[in-house]
Amino acid sequence: MAKVILTYNKEVLDTFELAQGDMKIGRRPDVDITIDSMAVSGEHANIFTIGEDSFIQDLGSTNGTFVNNKKIAKHHLKHGDTIMIGKHTLNYVNETQAKVASVPTEDFAKTVIIAPPSATEDTGVPQKAALYVLSGPSSGKRIEVSKRITNLGKTGKRSGTITRTDDAFVLVAGDTTDLPKLNGRLIARRGAKLKDGDVIEVAGTRLQFQLR
Question: Same domain, yes or no, for 85 and 140?
């Protein structure tokens, strides 16, 4: 299980195991990870975890969120990443990733060289993607996104579609009046290009988009 270690001036203050789903970071006492500092916004950032992957997103904080000294809006966390919020540090620890990283390099010496794809093969966008259901009765289910058009919503009510173009996956509004949300914001009628790790909310269900 991944965790973050909260430090201030190199002194460890607390350790938080990352539960599946959302964990908010901020100054307010009712968030999941409270940092008592005026440099930290009430709801400063959010860490979203699915499986062994964790993503941090700034929630419009006053002073910003930094990972490895770079200001971020959203970031896929890797073992050893250093998160700066105000003057406090959160060190991201993922033992599973650490074990993979520690495999001796000679184990890769026998890697088979694969011939490059032919000129006729479509390589502009990954051939497949998947949606992971984060809420509702189907929570934990994986939905393959391999067709040109994947419909989202309840039976008979198409709330949105994911269209695979030549170079991207695009989320488009469906036939209902309720627009899908992407990372907490309503999408424009013209649609929105999806990125790995994006969270979609449609028909009351939250899904995470992942490229494969």
Answer: no
